[in-house]
Amino acid sequence: MKFPRTYTLKEIAELISTEYVGADDFPVLGMNEIHVVNSGDIVFVDHPKYYDKALNSEATIVLINKKVDCPEGKALLISDDPFRDFNKLTSHFKPFQSSSVSISDSASIGKETIIQPNCFIGHNVTIGENCIIHPNVSIYNDTVIGNHVQIHAGTVIGASAFYYKNRPEGFDQLKSGGRVVIKDHVDIGALCTIDRGVTGDTTIGEGSKLDNQIQVGHDTLIGKKCLIASQTGIAGCVVIEDGVTIWGQVGIKSGITLAKGTTIYAQSGLGHSTEENTAYFGSPAVEARKKFKELAYINKLPEIIKKLNNI
After folding, report:
1. Backbone angles phi, psi at 78, to 5 degrees
2. Angle at which helices 9-16 and 82-93 cross, to 10°
3. 138 and 260, same structural domain?
4. Of the residues 148, 152, 185, 218, which is catalytic?
5. Residues 158 and 240 in one domain
6. What is the average pLDDT score of the chain?
7. Domain end among 42, 64, 93
8. Cα angle vertex 271, ends 267, 273, to 5°?
9. How far is the C-alpha of 83 from the C-alpha of 175, rounded, in Å?
10. Closest CA to 85 of 208, 25, 174
11. Omega before 284 cis (within 30°)?
12. CATH code of the domain covering residue 47
């Protein structure tokens, strides 16, 4: 998430009432999670296990819960609760905006696009030309939709990320200030749910087709010309490269990469990154040919046991 202007380290520290290490006028351009940070961004870290990763990342401002040596060319924000203060910044720069109309006045809708009855289109939504948005679709604030996109009934675009910190008093949600970006010629089936990024974008690439009842988690990137069948659940921060095929009822773990041309067969549970142009099956999923051989051997077990008993 980029800020509307360049802020100083001192200004940001005052917003969240923290100490800081660095020059008062050290420039702050935005805030992001560790996997999408750039120079000028704030990243937060609240566990010693991840200190080095955050301090050595592309981020130049680290919101951290311990005073540590500040790397050259960077600045620190010292907080007793970085998670809480990251949320404060999200609330400040991307506050929730309520709506009293079905289609916001700030939404932009292209030529020849059809919006069917009972749709909700939030603030600052952009929808391109020649799209069809079927009944009862909800498109949350800041979503960007390209040209020739079709979204079927009951789908929700831009809900909050499923990202929580377990505290003694209950679960504390990390606020979502990112977007959903849907490229040209994408089809999305009925009753799908596509969560917005926490600070970045959840993206569906050009020409990809999603069946009904699919969940896409926050900050996931789906490439071009992917096919995803119904009841698939994709966790947050997954990278799905071009030309991937995912069949029905597949579950995909967060933070992994599905390489170009991967195929995941139905009812598989994938917990690791994949190789290009390779098929996977099973739960946990393995290379499909290996799994099919295992199943063939298992099917022979009754025959083998029978022979052994007759010896």
Report:
1. -95, 115
2. 110
3. yes
4. 218
5. yes
6. 96
7. 93
8. 110
9. 10
10. 174
11. yes
12. 3.40.1390.10
Amino acid at 190: A
The tens digit of pLDDT for each residue in 26-73 reads 999 999 999 899 999 999 999 999 999 999 999 999 999 999 999 999
Q: What is the pLDDT of residue 267?
A: 97
Position 129 in a domain: yes
Tell me, what's the pLDDT at 308? 84
| Spatial separation of the C-alpha atoms in residues 55 and 239, rounded to whole Å | 24
Neighbouring-strand partners of residue 270: 252
CB-based contact 200:220 (threshold 8 Å):
no
Q: Is 218 a catalytic residue?
A: yes
Does position 311 have pLDDT exceeding 70, yes or no? no
pLDDT of residue 303: 85
Domain extent for 121? 108-289
- CB within 8 A of 190, min separation 6: which ones? 134, 152, 153, 154, 155, 212, 213
Provide the sign of the torsion angle of the four alpha carbons 33, 35, 41, 45, taken in this order.
positive
In this structure, are 179 and 248 located in the same domain? yes
Give the number of domains in the chain.
2
Residue 307 lies in a domain: no
Two tokens, residue 30:
């935005």
Largest CA distance in the chain: 86
The beta-carbon contacts of 211-216 under 8 Å, at least 24 apart in sequence, are 211/248, 212/152, 213/189, 214/189, 216/192
Do 214 and 178 contact (CB within 8 A), yes or no?
no
Quick one: which of 99, 133, 108 has its CA closest to 119? 133
Kindly state whether residues 136 and 263 are assigned to the same domain: yes
